[in-house]
Amino acid sequence: MEVYKRIIKISLPIALQQVIFTSVNFVDTLMIGALGEVAIAAVGLSNQVFFLYNLILFGLVSGGGIFFAQYWGKQEEEGLSRSVALTIISALFFSIPFFVLSFFYPNLVLNFFSPDIEVINLGAVYLKIIALSFPLFAISLVTSFMLRSIKKVHIPLIITIIELSSNIFLNYLLIFGKLGFPTLGVKGAAIATLIARLIGCISSVLIVYLRKMPGRIYFRHFREITPKFFKSYFHYAIPTMANEFAWSLGVTMYSIVYAHMGTNVIAAQRVMATIEGFATSITFSIANAASVIIGNMLGTSQYEEAYDVSKKALKLAELISIFAAIICIIITFFLVNVFDVSEEVKKMVRITITISMSFLPIKLFNGMNVVGFLRAGGDTRFSFIVEGSTLWFIGVPLSVIGGLALNLSFPVVYLLTMSEEVVKSLILLSRYKSKKWLKNVLE
């Protein structure tokens, strides 16, 4: 029971943080939805660029998170701060190309996602503004991972509440022109997002330094980044980045396929992803919690204890995923009615959510292994090979054939993409049982 309590203690704030984030996304989509399907599609496509940036950045920061958790397991605060310093430098450097492309060439970027000129022009307005938030988001994400690693998971939760409530309030003011503000529509939504991320970034940094928490960085920590540490860090971080890059590009390919299937399909996919986020945010929080606990244990070479925790975490996650999937399917049939979209779009959302939730236990098993177990032990190269190969050799080709060559419906194409999750789960099961991922990366 003690293990389950530890998992829940860490995963609950993470889950609440993700649920709040998803709730705001839901409200965001609802507010923008009042402007019509073109607006939903435009913001949805622009957010695909941020989605790509976010996932690759997540891969980089996850690589740093391996060191955060294991250094904290050994109670080495200087090693933790040095890891945070290198992660922040890397994250900011990585943000540069995404910022340049999104700010200076938004139409060109969005043209890659959709052929619809109206959607591209409207989306470019949104993308150009939120590009300014990319460096802010990078600092916030690194800080959030560090706080989770030292088990201060309630702080990112508080910051998320502050940031996203600001986003909702500013959306209300700027999208619809309330309380004397101008009616800016999609542009207003982008400005609201930028201001909210600025608030979140400043809040996270201030809390860490004012409360003198472990993991805060000073100039000396940058000077202490030796070539040996740099090489060791990127030995684990590069595969996680490559993993997320390959995966996010694959998911982006799905979006491109859906975009070429029609604007109504883009709207359906956007609405579905927003609702789906409620279920995945709750379940995948356990993977993040497991990564912290197991990483702390591996930092002190407690291999068998770490494996025992992983088994318990997996059982808990699978049980929760079944309940979450059932509830999500039931709620969707009613919740979809609040969106200002056509009946055809609503029907696609209901069917596709049912398919998605049916595969949630399998998707969660894969997430637990990749994010929760293998990365905690630095087994990042294997994760990269498995995720990249199954997505690009199974999922993406089937979506292209189904969506563009055979002109199948959105739900059927989505079902085809689930085949890669099934194959991936079989490979990961074998790796998990081999225990080859149980490593101390600091030795």
Please give the structural blueprint.
Blueprint lengths: L1 H32 L3 H37 L3 H28 L1 H6 L5 H14 L3 H16 L4 H23 L9 H25 L8 H5 L3 H34 L2 H36 L4 H33 L7 H16 L1 H15 L5 H26 L4 H8 L1 H16 L9
Question: What's the gist of this structure?
Answer:
This protein is mainly alpha-helical. The chain is built from 17 helices and no strands.
Features:
single chain; 443 residues; mainly alpha
Describe what this molecule looks like in 3D.
This protein has 443 residues and is mainly α. It has helices at residues 2-33, 37-73, 77-104, 106-111, 117-130, 134-149, 154-176, 186-210, 219-223, 227-260, 263-298, 303-335, 343-358, 360-374, 380-405, 410-417, 419-434. Helix 12 packs antiparallel against helix 14. The model has no long low-confidence stretch (mean pLDDT 86).
Order of helices and strands: HHHHHHHHHHHHHHHHH
Strand tally: 0
Return the structural class.
mainly alpha
Largest sheet: none
| Rg over C-alpha atoms, rounded to the nearest angstrom | 21 Å
Percentage of residues in DSSP E strands: under 5%
List the uncertain runs: none
